[in-house]
Amino acid sequence: MLGKIIAIEDNTVSIELKIDLTKFQSLLNLHVVMQEPSRTIIGEIIDIKEDIAYVNLLGEFVQGKFVYGVIKKPSFAAVVQLVAKDKLPHIVSVDSYDDIKDLYIGESPIYDGLKIGMNINAFFSNHFSIFGNTGSGKSCGIARIIQNLFHKKNPPYQANLFIFDAYGEYHTAFKDLTNISEDINFKTYTTNLESSNSEILRIPLWLLGVDDIALLLGVEKPTQLPIIEKALKLVTVFAQEGEENEKIKNDIISRVLLDILSSGKPAAQIRDQMVSILSNYETPKLNLGTEVYQPGYSRELKQCMTIDSSGRLRDIELITDFLEAFLLTQYDLVLPDGSFSYTIDHLAQAFDFALISEGSLTNNSVFEEMNILRVRVHSLANSEFRKYFEYPKYISKNAYINKLMTADNGRKAQIVNFNINYVDDRLAKNITKIYAKMLFDFSKDHKNGIQMPFHIILEEAHRYVQNDMDRMIFGYNIFERITKEGRKYGVLLGLISQRPSELSDTVISQCTNFLIFKMIHPKDVEYIKELVPNVTPELVKNFKLLQPGNCIAFGNAFKVPILVKMQMPNPAPSSSSCDISGVWFAKEK
What we know:
The chain has about 600 residues and is an alpha/beta fold.
């Protein structure tokens, strides 16, 4: 018998110890059983003062199974003992290890030799978060979990893990998994345009919708979305050849020029604007050199824009008649449906025409707002980043996603790693959102999506999962939508971050499993305490004291909050710190 219950306050039971403490190495964090004739209640020793042990109530055994939570407090007559060693796995690990259903993730630093396990379905069928300061073991922790999964007797051959790798760390940790079996494969896409070892990340532009293009161009206002929609509709005209498409271009240019002619502005200003339009937007049949025919002779269009001595356009009626001949009575433009390919140059040209067709040239404020997008798409088209959106041939969305999950040997790739280390934070964030939305839409539209679950794992998640402007612009944030709706479609989110306080509140609130490594920043610790359910003051205290590689695990997959010591992954991610002294004091080469 450990002692006698002398007080019960809230969730804490005070026990007067009846043992010689010098014969025990330590009682802190050990589990005790409070046995009554018809009830078995479990608690954890959280403090000892003057021979009084303070025990936090955790749960009780019901019909031989441990259940978290205590409805009725123990009686003062309950017999208090340390939990027997053979009963510990039922409380802090798994009842009886099943290779299909369970996974060991580490060992207990409290109980020597006790493996800590979790139910695979309870962990991976929910969104999860892994938090901790730099160097605390986050990357090694997720690498170890995934390695343990694939080193099981029955590996998860049908897994689909998409890792967005902020630093290019995980290639080392997973590249050798294929040695286990030819049916286990790891695939890497890289943003390093000079790489010869990994496939360059490439996204077919024609698979992107209005929201995706808006993300790519950094839209800041909802009023900018119509110009993107108009540009995407015009892509059909520029990406596909044909007489009808040229007629549509001529119609757009003509309407813009006619608006300028009727604007009432001074003749010199009208002439200059028309010359500017035709210098930048032209077709074979409508340009500054197009012949305008009159009875008996013809002149080039630019020659018809002369101003007479009274300050008027001399041939305004002639130009008007000429342009009106290009007008179409009706034509319909629809958004691309992904059934044909187009390039970034087609998109840039479509933005040019969308800008002038919206009448923004006659409104300075509208022009400035819309021209920002035009400049950005042209900047992208003229940068090396355009290569990320150049795809060699047409591919459908379904075929593209299937290709993402196909290894070089033609077999299924269970782990797909996107190394986004070689682009700036803004583009990395937008690429991550675009892929997340693509995978979510694919699963939502796929009749058997829930039978093919996708796990999207975000390293340095605070860079991407933020309280940003997406909700104001689009009406939703893709990561918030995934955490709220993704489970029913089989799309699950895994967050790895050193700054949880910078993450979206909505996303964190939807996570049900947590691995917390050492955290010392007061704002982050307080954030977790306030937002994450089932976080007790005792857990919060431990966040600051954890050794590297140790974490506190709690949530649906764990029966009680438990301290876990994880083994180093083998091989480990390439995330070691800089050896300052080794560099500083090295002999000159």
